[in-house]
Amino acid sequence: MSTIMETYQDKTIEVQDNKKLLIDSKPIQVVFDNDTGKWSTHLIPYKEFDDLLALAKQIIADSEEFK
């Protein structure tokens, strides 16, 4: 199991096995689109991201839940 951890705006981002995302230990529901090869979440509708780290940073920047 591989885990990437990074701190962004005082929040801890954890990506496990390049398919599970946690922000400050809270699981974030994500969806991978096999056709486009991109990630998305209901927290940021109508946007797709190349990787979970970029998605997590955008969630932290835009979501009221993590401000």
Topology record:
Elements: E1 3-8, E2 11-16, E3 20-23, E4 26-28, E5 31-33, E6 38-41, E7 44-49, H1 52-62
Antiparallel strand pairs: 1-2, 2-3, 3-4, 5-6, 6-7
Q: What would you call the quaternary organization? A: single chain
Distance between the termini: 30 Å
**Main β sheet profile:** 4 strands, antiparallel
CATH domain topology: protein ne1242 fold
Would you give an account of this structure?
The protein is of the alpha+beta class. It has a single domain, classed as 2-Layer Sandwich (protein ne1242 fold). Helix content is 16%, strand content 48%. The protein is built from 1 helix and 7 strands. The chain has a 4-stranded antiparallel β-sheet with strand order 1-2-3-4, with helices on one face. A 3-stranded antiparallel β-sheet has the order 5-6-7, with helices on one face. The radius of gyration is 11 Å and the shape is globular. The model has no long low-confidence stretch (mean pLDDT 96).
Brief overview, please?
The chain has 67 residues and is α+β, with helices and mostly antiparallel strands.
